[in-house]
């Protein structure tokens, strides 16, 4: 499932609803917020679910600047500092990353992990664009929420 535009009401996990509201607040009247607009201290409860991805151009590449502990748990490893094209199994995600860079608006995705040994897990990904120049996406913030079996907080009604 891929949805854009997305509103907080479209998002089942409370953590991702809260993250979208925070992004909307720091964006204000701007087209996209800057990285400096985001204060991690204002989102301490959300930090395990947040990953930051640098967008490089010419050629376009994606580097994981920060990977939240929920994603490390789901992947079984920490990919902070690595490029997407260096990580086996992540090729299918590039299309969504490119979409966000080209469309510059948030999206919500729900699917099954294919880029982890734990490919039995379903997850939600909330993609949020950030821009340093106000015109081009320079950073993507992902809110990630994994549906771990047996974790009652992740069982959907």
From TrEMBL:
In Swiss-Prot or TrEMBL terms, this protein is called: PAS domain-containing protein
Organism encoding this protein: Emcibacter nanhaiensis
């Amino acid at each position: 499932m891929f949805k854009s535009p997305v509103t907080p009401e479209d998002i089942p996990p409370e953590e991702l609803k809260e993250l979208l509201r925070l992004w909307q607040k720091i964006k204000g009247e701007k087209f996209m917020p800057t990285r400096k607009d985001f204060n991690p201290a204002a989102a301490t409860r959300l930090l395990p679910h947040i990953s930051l991805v640098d967008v490089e151009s010419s050629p376009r590449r994606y580097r994981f600047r920060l990977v939240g502990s929920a994603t490390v748990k789901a992947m079984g490893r920490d990919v902070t500092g690595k490029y997407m094209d260096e990580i086996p199994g992540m090729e299918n995600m590039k299309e969504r990353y490119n979409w966000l860079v080209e469309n510059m608006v948030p999206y919500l995705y729900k699917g099954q992990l294919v880029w982890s040994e734990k490919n039995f897990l379903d997850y939600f990904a909330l993609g949020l664009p950030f821009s340093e120049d106000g015109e081009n996406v320079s950073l993507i913030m992902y809110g990630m929420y994994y549906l771990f079996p047996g974790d009652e907080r992740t069982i959907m009604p």
